[in-house]
Write a structure and sequence with these properties.
CATH superfamily of the largest domain: membrane protein fhac
Largest sheet: 3 strands, mixed
CATH class of the largest domain: Alpha Beta
CATH architecture of the largest domain: Roll
Number of domains: 3
Order of helices and strands: HHHHEHHEEEEHHEEEHEEHHEE
Strand order of the largest sheet: 1-3-2
Radius of gyration: 29 Å
Strand content: 15-25%
């Protein structure tokens, strides 16, 4: 008869090898390599920075390096160090330096991080802050509310995301590249349709990408925009929601093609949306519920009438 204690004991013995594996030096080295790869992936989003890290001087770096920061305009250096986990108390290893660069990049506060090595060795980090926004001007909107576009343009991390980032940074090892999200009050943001001045999070390119993803995700695949940010902090956004240059129906005789174009009610210069296209195709399918077959006969029950979807 099996003892009541045999099953838990068997489970314990089965789990022990896994625990030993996770605690082994090999597993620790594997985790470290994974962290290094992840940090390099983040840093490599900046092509110039990635090229510097691949250079012989940095790739062959063996000695720990001191770190010096320059280039800050409006951000206090102590605040930047606090954001990424604190000023290093001792020189950094190569992996720790890469993790620091990844954390700085994850803040979304800098448009550029220039890297150089001096004798010592000393790692010089020249940080270029993203510009500040104090007002936004939108032009070209007709299908969207300006408040919705403004929300995406000036999107910033939520309070919950910022707090989680702080916890992750406090718990992270020096070689780990936890995201270092900045306090919300540092960033330009939309509040009840108004603009609260601050740094443009992830820069102009990031802001424009957020708006394009929003417009196209709402069914306007031809949408495009241009933006400029003046030194005085005026962000000008010119939005083209995407207009048709014409409508062409192929594969049908000319008379039927003209009738279908007329039924679509999609005219040159109209703003194009996938919703309008779906409605137009439904009208066509209701009017022509069958399509000619290859022999010229009609097929009952067809819903396409030979019109490519």
């Amino acid at each position: 008869m099996r003892s009541a204690f045999s099953t838990p004991r068997a489970r314990f013995l089965a789990v022990c090898p896994a625990l030993l594996l996770f605690a082994s030096p090999a597993a620790a080295r594997g985790k470290a390599r994974e962290e290094q790869t992840g940090c390099m992936r983040i840093v490599s989003r900046d092509e110039a920075l990635a090229a510097t890290l691949r250079s012989d001087a940095f790739r062959d770096l063996r000695d720990p390096v001191a770190v010096r920061v320059s280039g800050l305009q409006s951000l206090p250096e102590d605040d930047v160090w606090q954001l990424v986990g604190g000023r290093p108390a001792a020189p950094l290893s190569r992996d720790e330096a890469v993790a620091l660069l990844a954390r700085l990049q994850s803040t979304g506060l800098f448009s550029g991080i220039a890297l150089s090595l001096d004798d010592g060795p000393t790692l010089n980090l020249e940080l270029t802050e993203n510009l500040r926004v104090r007002a936004v001007r939108l032009r070209g909107l007709s299908e969207f509310r300006s408040e919705d576009v403004l929300d995406r343009l000036l999107e910033i991390p939520s309070s919950w995301e910022v707090e989680r980032s702080r916890r992750d940074i406090r718990a992270a090892e020096p070689t780990e590249c936890a995201a270092a999200l900045p306090p919300r009050d540092l960033l330009a943001r939309a509040e009840n349709g108004d603009v609260s001045p601050g740094i443009l999070w992830k820069g102009l390119r990031g802001a424009l990408d957020r708006v394009v993803r929003y417009l196209r995700g709402r069914g306007y695949p031809l949408a495009r925009l241009e933006g400029s940010l003046s030194p005085s902090g005026i962000l000008q956004l010119d939005i083209d929601e995407g207009r048709l240059s014409g409508v062409e129906v192929r594969g049908l005789d000319a008379g039927l093609a003209r009738d279908i174009v007329a039924e679509l009610h999609l005219d040159r210069g109209d703003i194009f949306s996938t919703g309008e296209l779906s409605s137009a195709l439904e009208r066509v399918e209701r009017r022509w519920p069958c399509a000619p077959s290859a022999s010229g006969a009609t097929r009952s029950g067809s819903s396409s009438c030979g019109i490519p979807r």
